[in-house]
Specification:
Layout (H helix, E strand, L loop, with lengths): L10 H52 L3 H82 L6
Helix pairs in contact: 1-2
């Protein structure tokens, strides 16, 4: 009664899945940081635009030469374009954050599945060993029973 070799160990696969999950966590963390930085940049740019608009309105009330007013209007236009570009960039980064969250969820599920599979494999292997041990003990009991001097009479 030869023992079968233990099935393939899932430890290597489980370690690999854990590394993938950790990498996904790091990527999500980085994506969130970048998103937060861009969001802060957008808020600053919107504040700067608001200040420019207020300054332009104040200059118009006070009366200012047309060249200076045109210069402020150009700054406002440039700032508005910058706000639009930053908003677009922010939307792209939000999509990346969402993708990284999905990726992390996927990696986490894969690792959990492999972890459960490893546990099931270990339980199955232990059952196999217990069954073999019981069979060996039965065989030993039969052999001993056959050598019992009381049975030979």
């Amino acid at each position: 009664m030869a023992l079968q070799p233990k099935p393939f160990s899932l430890e290597t696969v489980l370690n690999y899945r854990k590394r993938l999950e950790d990498l996904a966590k790091n990527r999500l963390y980085e994506a969130r940081n970048i998103h937060a930085i861009i969001q802060e940049k957008l808020q600053k740019e919107k504040l700067a635009l608001t200040i420019l608009i207020e300054e332009t309105a104040q200059l118009q009330v006070e009366g200012v030469e047309i060249r200076k007013l045109i210069l402020f209007e150009e700054k406002i236009t440039a700032s508005q374009k910058n706000v639009i570009a930053i908003e677009k960039n922010l939307q792209e980064k939000a999509k990346i954050v969402e993708q990284e969250q999905t990726n992390l969820l996927k990696r986490s599920r894969e690792r959990q599945i492999m972890d459960r599979l490893k546990i099931e494999q270990n339980v199955s292997w232990q059952r196999y060993l217990d069954k073999k041990e019981a069979a060996m003990l039965d065989e030993i009991a039969i052999i001993r029973h056959g050598k019992d001097p009381l049975d030979q009479q």
